[in-house]
């Protein structure tokens, strides 16, 4: 089945199952889908030496990209076949320095969906539950 005929949830579940390739950004910012259900996604992400700022810490762009991905993909899970979306606003609160070479869990959840807009939130935590970032996103629904 082509992705044009799949719901957003079916697309996300097919990516997680390895039936379709992940988005190419997942090769630059290592992210892997773990679960997807209606209105919610969970990814695993890990910053490495490619993601450092001039001072040697993990660049904020790593966190922003992961947050954009999980908040957007959470919205994707509630869309019907043939419907797209685009981020129009992303607000990322970086609460703690992201560690390098550490498995992190990113979760995105839908807060609200209307005919033309959707709002979601995301978190980035380690396996112990320490939160590194929180984000909210507003996306336009493209019907």
Give a short overview.
The chain has 143 residues and is of the alpha+beta class.
Task: Describe the 3D structure.
By secondary structure, the protein is α+β, with helices and mostly antiparallel strands. It has a single domain (3-142), classed as Roll (Thiol Ester Dehydrase, Chain A), CATH 3.10.129. The chain contains three helices and six strands. It has helices at residues 8-16, 25-28, 60-76; strands at residues 31-37, 40-45, 84-94, 104-113, 117-126, 131-142. The protein has a six-stranded antiparallel beta sheet with strand order 1-2-4-5-6-3. Strand 5 (117-126) and strand 6 (131-142) form a beta hairpin. The longest helix is centred in the middle third of the chain and has 17 residues, at 60-76. The chain starts with 7 loop residues before the first helix and ends with a strand.
Features:
143 residues; alpha+beta; Thiol Ester Dehydrase, Chain A; 6-stranded antiparallel sheet; globular
Q: Assign the CATH superfamily.
A: Hotdog Thioesterase
CATH fold assignment: Thiol Ester Dehydrase, Chain A
Low-confidence stretches: none
How many separate structural domains?
Answer: 1
- Strand order across the biggest sheet? 1-2-4-5-6-3
What's the shape? globular
Q: In which range does the helix fraction lie?
A: 10-25%
Give the distance, in angstroms, between the N- and C-terminal Cα atoms: 20 Å
Strand content: 35-45%
CATH architecture type = Roll
Structure summary, number of beta strands: 6
Instruction: Determine Rg (CA atoms, Å).
Output: 15 Å
Order of helices and strands: HHEEHEEEE
What is the CATH class?
Alpha Beta
Major sheet summary line: 6 strands, antiparallel
């Amino acid at each position: 089945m082509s992705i044009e005929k799949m719901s957003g949830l079916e697309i996300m579940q097919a990516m997680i199952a390895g039936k379709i390739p992940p988005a190419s950004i997942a090769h630059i910012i290592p992210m892997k889908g773990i679960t997807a259900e209606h209105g919610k996604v969970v990814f695993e992400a890990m910053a490495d030496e490619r993601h450092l700022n001039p001072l040697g810490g993990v660049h904020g762009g790593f966190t922003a990209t992961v947050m954009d991905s999980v908040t957007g993909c959470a919205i994707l899970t509630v869309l019907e076949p043939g419907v797209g979306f685009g981020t129009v606003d992303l607000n990322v609160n970086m609460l703690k320095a992201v560690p390098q070479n550490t498995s992190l869990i990113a979760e995105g959840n839908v807060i609200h969906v209307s005919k033309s807009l959707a709002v979601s939130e995301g978190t980035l935590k380690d396996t112990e539950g320490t939160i590194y970032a929180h984000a909210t996103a507003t996306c336009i629904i493209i019907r």
